[in-house]
Amino acid sequence: MDPDLLANWTTQLRKGLLELCVLSALKGRRLYGYDIVKRLGAVGGLVMGEGTVYPILSRFKREGLVETSLEESPEGPARKYYQLTPRGRQMLGKMLTVWAEVRDGIDHVAAELLP
Amino acid sequence: MTGAILMTTFTPEAEARLEEYLRQVRAAVARDPEVSPDEIEADLREHVETEFRSAVRPVTLTEMEAVLVRLGPPENWATAGGRSAKDVVVGDLTALGRWVRTRTRGVLSTLWRGPEDWRLAYLAFGLFCFGLLTLPIVVGVLLLAASYVMGRAAAELAKEKGAPLGARRWLVYPGVLAVSVPLFLAVMLWPVSAGAPASEFVEAHERVARAADLHDRGVRDAYQPSAERVKQARRVMAAIPGPRDWAEPVAGVFAAVGALALWWTLVGVAMWAFPKWPTVVFHPLLDGYDGWHGLKLAAVAGVAFLIWLGFATRFAEAAGLT
Questions:
Q1: Burial of B34 by CB count in 10 Å (0-12 exposed, 13-18 middle, 19+ buried)?
Q2: B186 CB near a chain A CB, below 8 Å?
Q3: CB 3.0-4.6 Å disulfide test: which of A35, A71, B144, B251 passes with A31?
Q4: Which of A54, A62, A68 is the best mutation test for B, with the most CBs of B within 10 A?
Q5: Tell me, what's the ipTM?
Q6: pLDDT-derived band of residue B152, with 50, 70 and 90 as boundaries?
């Protein structure tokens, strides 16, 4: 495979999965940006630059999938916490459904093609 | 937002590097209308501060660089955050322009330096395109004719080399078909025009018959059809089957069928006698033709003509035309 093509494909794959993981990380809890970045950064191969998470959070906020709240921190200035909105929870549910279908489909194909 | 709100103390170099990085971030995400640069900058400042929460003060440039490296190059973020519709359009147009330039260079290179059969194919297609564009003015017809000749030459060359036209047929056939299809239709269907005089013949008799049927004496006298003409006209109209209003089209179709049957009989015989010329003149329409096709056409058309002749004779007798 052409290196540019592979790089582009990998970027697109990671982009979609990272968005799913950002919403998943916020499922049932609220986290501040740094915490989200570090949690997702621990997933191997998912986050190639920690900074890529922040534009996603910004876009999700603009689309009404997440909302923010400021909270005082004993260790410094107030922290901005992210949490899912009802719309974000709905979107996460749909994305997880699609992901399960894709994953099962790929597993099925792999089981047929791979020895 | 500025670095002043940060509680962490940086060396001047580290702070300058951070500001430079944030400037790059703003520039990178500015292309994405779905994100807020202010919000992202605030998040990043919070991120950096949290990273150095327990660091020794002041934070050095090396330490700052390590954090910024982990954050990643901002120029990749626009892709990570999604491209704007404008970026998508611009990107697609750029790719299209690149493709067009590459193809144009390829075509020109083939035209000037490529193998002859490809050169002829491109020339045939180019002439065909220009011919279509200039068809409203007479020059278009000449260009189409030239495209036909070039296309035929390309096909012959490929044949001589024993190689099929392959992909070149998409360049060659448009110009060839633009000429051979109309030519084929004209050669095979021109006798249809025989229907027009037949219709006019019936129309003339119809006019006489109707005038004689008129109760308005003034009009009838003004038209003045002779008794013999009226009688003849009425016999002709009575000999044509079907409603009287349909007499003209029925006569036209009948005459056209007869003319076609006779012509196709002659053409079939000619094609059987000279089996090479149909494939030469009507390439590629009749590439699979052999002499027997001509004979079959002549036989079927001949039988049809004989049947037609029988009906025509009966009509002529009934109409008193014999």
A1: middle
A2: no
A3: A35
A4: A54
A5: 0.85
A6: confident
